[in-house]
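In the design runs reported in the main text, the only information available to the sequence generator was the tokenized backbone. The following block is the verbatim input for one such run; it is reproduced so that readers can re-run the procedure and compare outputs position by position.
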């Protein structure tokens, strides 16, 4: 298991309609566990240490995960593909050259 920290170019200033679509995507992603103390969470349970959490930060949508590289890469790739489809702009990591889409 490895710790992963990644940002996506989903900016906090997006309109509510984008955040509504994104919240629906959260629930459709594999291993959705719900909101834990207000934080969207996947994988977490009392029997293991695997977890994905997300928060909205000035730097973009921030992911924290403890997963194997293979599990993380598969899940994160799917999230970026699905977010791109529902939000209508290319979702990726700012450090890879993806610009913020702001409305």
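Verbatim output:
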């Amino acid at each position: 298991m490895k710790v992963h920290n990644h940002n996506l170019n989903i900016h906090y200033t997006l309109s509510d309609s984008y955040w509504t679509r994104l919240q629906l995507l959260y629930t459709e992603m594999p291993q959705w566990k719900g909101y834990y103390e207000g934080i969207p969470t996947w994988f977490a349970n009392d029997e293991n240490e695997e977890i994905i959490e997300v928060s909205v930060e000035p730097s973009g949508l921030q992911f924290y995960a403890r997963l194997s590289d293979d599990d993380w890469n598969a899940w994160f790739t799917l999230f970026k593909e699905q977010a791109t489809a529902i939000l209508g702009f290319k979702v990726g990591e700012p450090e890879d050259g993806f610009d913020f889409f702001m409305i």
